[in-house]
Every structure is written in C-alpha cells, then in structure tokens.
Q: What sequence folds into this?
C-alpha cells in the first residue's frame, strides 16, 4: 500500500474472517517495501512471504515476514560499503500555498502539505543556513519519486551537500488524488509546489540559501525546472536537466512524434484552444524572460531520443543565450548556459557499461563547481581585473627598424 508518501506492506485476512489489519513495521522513517513479483509460489497458502526493502540509506535487500510471529528476517543484503549511522534521513512537510489548493475528483481527500525528503551527512550539516543543497523533482504522470538507494548521491553528501527530493503534485507520491491535482488544468500546481518547497527550506527550515541551491530533474522533471526558473529565476545558482521536456507546446502539436497523444492525457490536447492557451502560459520555451539573470544551466540530450526530441533542449539553449539572460559577456557573475547531446544516447541516457556513470559524473561536477563558485562569492569579495584601454606606440631605432609597444591600462573592480 501507499500511505503518507511511503510504499509499504499491509497484512489483511484472505478468507474474510475477523482480523485486525496491520502494516508491516519497519524501523526507518522513510523506506520502500514491495513484492518483487505478483504471484509468489505458495504466497496465498503459506504463513510467510518475501519482499524487497530499500531506502536512501539501505541498499536493496530481500526479506521475509512471518504473519504468525510477526518476525522479519533478512535473507540477502547488498553491502553498501558505508556506515549508515553517519547520515541522517528525514522528512519535512511544506504547506501547499492557499491559492493553489484544489479539490480532487469525486471529493477524494488530498494532503494539504508537500513532503520533502532530506538526506545528508550528519557531521557536516550546519545550523546556520549555509548548507549547499541539491534538490530534485519530477511531478508528472502519477510517477512517485520513492526513497530508493542511489549510491551516487553519497559523492555529494560526503562533500557536505544536502540531498533533497520535493514530492510535488502531479506525481503519485501521495496517491491518485495527488496526481489528479497536478495534471491538465492543474499542471501549474507542480511548479508552485516546487517553489514553495525551496522557499520553505530557506525561510522556515533555514537549511540553505537560494544562492547555495542546485536543482536537478530528468524528462518531465525538466519541464518542472524550466517552468520553475521562469517563475523564479533566482531560485537557485545552478540547474541540470537531462533529456528535458522544454517545448511541450510545439512538440505536442505534432501527433507523428511517438507518445505525443499519450502526453495529451497529462497536459491536454493543444489542438483545443483552452488547452493550447494554458499550455502556452507555462511552457518553458515560450516563457523565457529577457534581460533577467537565470541560474547556470546544463542540459543534456540524446540524438536517438524518441520520447523527448533533442532539439527541444537545443532550441531552448539558443533562445536563452539570445535573450541576454546570462549576465552578458564580461560579467563576473555570468551564468553558464551549456548543452551536451550524446550522439548515441536515447531517453535513458548514454549507452555502454559506463556511459551513465560518466554522464552522472559530468552533471555532478558541473553542479559542484557552480555551488562552490556561488558559496565562494557569498563568503568574501573578489577582485575582477578588467582591461579598459589598450594604446599602441611605434618608435624607430638607430638602425632604422620599427618597434611596436602596447600599453594596457587596468582597472580593478571589487564585487560581492
């Protein structure tokens, strides 16, 4: 069952006899427990069953639960090569902005708070609001972002970066009603939820500052981040989006592109005026703001991606660069607008045994660099040397040859 944003297990009576239903108890606050297959041998006649268990701090393990004794047994466990006690995993709940609260279909109850999962190395966490943070989100198709184990995030946490996931509406984290209130004519709720989560971590939890925040999303998560940047360009110092859906309006008008008609169930059919106008009002490509400083951005795409064509990211980058939104040439605070397209990659990223590891390393390197650069700017002023004037003089020597001398006048500018 899915309850309070967690995927767990509940024991119920099979034959309808009087029985107190109960959830299988686990020690961790955040976890994912699920049956590895639907029809296990003897699963309906035995007194025990097997399932998989994982969390942000627990690699996948196979477990068994005895319904008679209520005992949990670990059958097989992956060695993570780290000490989970050195890390903290917790959740905070962000109030949904009052103006965006809507009723779910059929009056289904829906939560009035947005869960945010936080994981970090305990001894590097600071209580002064100066933590660097890496926040991810998705918010589409009713797909939940469960707290499963991802070994690669430890390279961030071991550098003192807080890993966060905003479980915004449009995903399935809190059930079908959570999805319904973040799709079609309610799609913007996912974007405002994400902004609310970022603001809450800064203003209420006082974990970080916007200048120390980096954002990450893939596919429809790129739609989320693209729309969020247009809503609040100063929300973060850096953004990385993989195979991002940045031009949903124009792409969804072409029904020959694979899966476009399925996307209509998520964002509406743009051949209908009402859906067209609403989609146009939040499409990241259509709403790039001119002469506004955006975060540094790295987009990655795959030439063979049949889900989100690579040209969506390419045209977004071209328009962003042309809109003078990166601070301008010579600005010491200039944002980077980068784009990388894999010539062999698809929607799942680069192929090969190590392709995705290399991609992750590149993305993390970009985010870490931008976070450290922004953190450095916060801590102390810098001196930017700028060439303001170059003069050239010619002189003739006694031998009759001509020499050229250039004189540079340098101005030093101090900034924070």
A:
């Amino acid at each position: 069952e899915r309850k309070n944003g967690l995927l767990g297990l509940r024991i119920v009576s099979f034959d309808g006899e009087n029985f107190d239903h109960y959830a299988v108890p686990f020690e961790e606050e955040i976890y994912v427990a699920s049956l590895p297959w639907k029809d296990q041998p003897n699963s309906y006649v035995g007194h025990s069953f097997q399932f998989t268990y994982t969390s942000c701090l627990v690699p996948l393990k196979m477990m068994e639960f005895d319904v008679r004794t209520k005992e949990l047994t670990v059958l097989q466990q992956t060695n993570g090569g780290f000490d989970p006690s050195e890390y903290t995993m917790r959740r905070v709940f962000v109030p949904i902005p009052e103006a965006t609260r809507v009723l779910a279909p059929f009056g289904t109850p829906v939560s009035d708070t947005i869960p945010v999962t936080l994981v970090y190395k305990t001894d590097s966490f600071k209580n002064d609001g100066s933590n660097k943070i890496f926040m991810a989100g998705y918010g589409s198709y009713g797909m939940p972002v469960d707290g499963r184990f991802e070994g690669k995030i430890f390279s961030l946490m071991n550098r003192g970066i807080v890993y966060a996931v905003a479980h915004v509406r449009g995903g399935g984290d809190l059930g079908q009603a959570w999805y319904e209130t973040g799709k079609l004519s309610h799609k913007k709720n996912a974007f405002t939820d994400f902004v609310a989560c970022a603001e809450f971590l800064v203003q209420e939890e006082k974990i970080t500052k916007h200048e120390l925040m980096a954002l990450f999303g893939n596919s429809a998560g790129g739609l989320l981040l693209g729309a969020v940047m247009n809503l609040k360009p100063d929300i973060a110092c850096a953004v990385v989006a993989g195979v991002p859906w940045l031009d949903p309006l124009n792409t969804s008008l072409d029904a020959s592109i694979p899966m476009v008609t399925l996307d209509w169930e998520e964002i509406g059919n743009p051949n209908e005026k009402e859906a067209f106008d609403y989609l146009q009002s939040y499409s990241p490509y259509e709403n790039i703001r001119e002469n506004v400083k955006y975060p540094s951005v790295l987009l990655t795409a795959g030439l063979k991606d049949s889900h989100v064509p690579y040209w969506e990211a390419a045209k977004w980058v071209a328009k962003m660069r042309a809109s003078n939104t990166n601070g301008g040439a010579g600005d010491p605070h200039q944002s980077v607008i980068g784009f990388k397209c894999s010539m062999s990659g698809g929607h799942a990223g680069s192929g090969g045994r190590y392709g995705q590891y290399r991609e992750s390393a590149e993305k993390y390197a970009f985010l870490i660099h931008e976070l450290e650069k922004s953190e450095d700017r916060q801590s102390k002023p810098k001196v930017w040397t700028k060439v303001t004037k170059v003069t050239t003089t010619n002189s003739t020597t006694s031998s009759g040859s001509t020499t050229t001398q250039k004189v540079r006048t340098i101005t030093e500018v101090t900034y924070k």
Observations:
- The first helix runs from residue 154 to 157.
